[in-house]
Amino acid sequence: MSGLSAAFMNTSLALIIMPTEKCNYRCTYCYEDFLAGKMPRDVLDSLLEFLSKRIPELTNLEISWFGGEPLLAIDVLDEVMSFCHSEATKHSVALSSGISTNGHLLSPNIFSLLVQKNVLRYQITMDGPKQFHNARRKRKNAEGDYDLILRNLFFICETNANFDLNIRIHVDRANSECMDDLMADITLIGKDPRTTLCFERVKNLGHQLPPDIKPMGQSEFHCFVTKFISNPKYAHFKFDNVLDKIDTHVCYAALPNNFVVRSDGRLQKCTVALNNSINTVGKIEKSGRLSINDQYLKWISVWQQQDTALLACPARYFKSSSTLG
Amino acid sequence: MSRKEGAYYERRGCAMATEKEVIDALKDLNPKSVSVDSEGRIIIKDEAAKKRLEQLQGENHKRGGNNYINCDC
Prior knowledge:
The structure holds two protein chains of two kinds.
Chain A: H1 2-6, E1 12-17, H2 41-54, E2 60-65, H3 74-90, E3 94-100, H4 108-116, E4 119-126, H5 130-136, H6 146-158, E5 164-171, H7 173-176, H8 179-185, H9 187-191, E6 195-201, H10 218-229, E7 258-261, E8 266-268, E9 280-284, E10 290-292, H11 295-305, H12 308-312, H13 314-320
Parallel strand pairs in A: 1-2, 1-7, 2-3, 3-4, 4-5, 5-6
Antiparallel strand pairs in A: 7-8, 8-9, 9-10
Chain B: H1 3-12, H2 19-25, E1 34-36, E2 42-44, H3 47-62
């Protein structure tokens, strides 16, 4: 695969930045603890200092925005992307960026700013049709806002911007029967050639699932997806569930050049095992230098084992080991 | 590279080093030979693995691309 060998080279760097961790949502199945707030000024300065030293040596820089909710800290995103764009242009570095957002704040103005800042890949999750989405993807002190999110998505699909939109659809036994309703609501968005739909099964990622969520087993999920996407009435939608079919794919957590930057400056590898001590491989110092600890080697060790399941999810190895933090 | 992007490029059949080629190239990689310096540079002391990776990168150039970001084959 094209990017894998580059992930071992010094000319390529990938950062997943969490500019805030105090999400405006409280999805009922979420594994995050919402304790760390917005990235403070000193951490942001350190990050920019690090990037200023690193960018001139790169050919490729990949910045992904995660949180949640990254758009709550749009000023951090704006500052980092403005800096990266300017430095990348100066040093002929290919800059690419994407964001995972709940879509609540993805207003026309914010979308326009993001496109201007080169953030061109969007991942937005829907939890099924309105009744499921609003009950599961709740805001902090209110129900979800399915209608607002769809309005935001309709708007971005009406623009001429050159972006990719991935709508991730969470599915379980409870909502699977109603997916036709969601598809009816997103027909115009789904028909857009820039849109891809991807089903994911709801899983326990470290937080006890509420009783109304009925997780599917893997084979059950495969059957559901296969049947659903082969329905001729959805022939005009672009589905991307190829992940479940390929033999080998490698998680970003296994890539040596990929780091998650927590809002407090910690460097991690995985965006799920956020509270696992093995996940913290270092931090960005005030000088903009990185201090990397021995945990980093554990993430690299999955390559030696040549186990494709571990390369697909190195965190699985740590979960089964006695060293789990 | 996200898993999704990986799958995307795999599906698109990019004529570049495959995941299997890279995984094979790293077969005997000693994890202790990989480190990151304070500037964020990856240091691979395992010369054999490094050479195999560089060859794959060279192959990528020959096959018409050099990175995943701009790969559009």
